[in-house]
Amino acid sequence: MVEGVSTLLALSSLRPRMKSHPFLLLLLLHCAAAVNTRWEGSCTSTTICSATMTWRPGDRPLGGTYSLNTSYCERSHLRLAELRVPFCVVPAQPLIVPYRRQRQRQDWISRNVKRHGRWAECDHLVSAWNRSVGDEDALYVDVGTNIGACAMQMLALTRAHLVAVEPNPHNLFYLTRSLNLPGLSELLAGGKGHSLRQRAIVFPMGAGATNGTVSLVMDPLNQGNSAISSDGLIAGRNPGETHALVRVPDVPIRQLDDILDATDRLRRVRLLKLDVQGYECFVLRGASRTLRSVDAIFAEADESQLRRQGCSVATLRQLLVMNGFTVNETRTLTEGAFEAYRKQMA
User: Fold this and answer.
1) Greatest Cα pair distance in the chain
2) pTM for this structure?
3) 35, 161, 210, 259: which one has the fewest Cβ atoms less than 10 Å from its Cβ?
4) What are phi and psi of 85, to 5 degrees?
5) The domain containing residue 200 runs over which residues?
6) Are 155 and 33 in the same domain?
């Protein structure tokens, strides 16, 4: 907080000189807010500081973003059966990032939601939820929530209670604004008198094998392509692409066991989704207690991404089998995946 206050005091002293440069003043104020926000979200304890590191619908939306040019919510809708669910998408930005294969930049999921009213890969999760055996209002744990298309579909089409784990500050900007859109609370109120605020909780952090901080590498053309930095993935360029990746330092990361300790442990996890760009093995290694109460898992399984993080598809499968799951191979629109169920349910 002291750091944020000192930054604001410095801005106050410069204000008279900036009357002719309003955009520069706006940029510095944004940076000062980011400094203060990062301090409030830091946590050196080995467990979750739940007072500062959780978010629920109705709270002030999270504002962290690496670009002022995309810091607003473009209103769209998810079209799910008879429901039209209001949803924030990333606005198209024609000139921010040069890209040789498209004239206008828009996040892939956002583009599909605008065109088709849904992100088709989320249908796998609803199917996996329906195939698993468990309470209707059990937990759906979404590790790698992105901007929230699948989280919103699960809230709309099931009675699940959502635990969203997302470290990307840009994704959090849209996710938390979507969950606060007018009319959504009434539309997504669950059974048994559960409000949307009771049904959803967001953890603005990553999940891994240990607790600490890491660097995150983000692709500005694909909100879903955010990964923990490693020896095989550094801020630079993807092979064959012309645009640079963006590095975000000091992102909090916690074991999934500790994250779920800050939620309602009386509920079982009916479905755990893992989509963390190759970091899936690390998430499972930090979830030994959690996995004992999980009924089903849907995990992305991309060999190249896993190898960048020192893992493999075979190792990921072995981790699931060792924890009592029967593993079935499947595919999303773009990558391989595993559907895993408790052996007694398979």
Assistant:
1) 70
2) 0.80
3) 210
4) -100, 120
5) 68-342
6) no
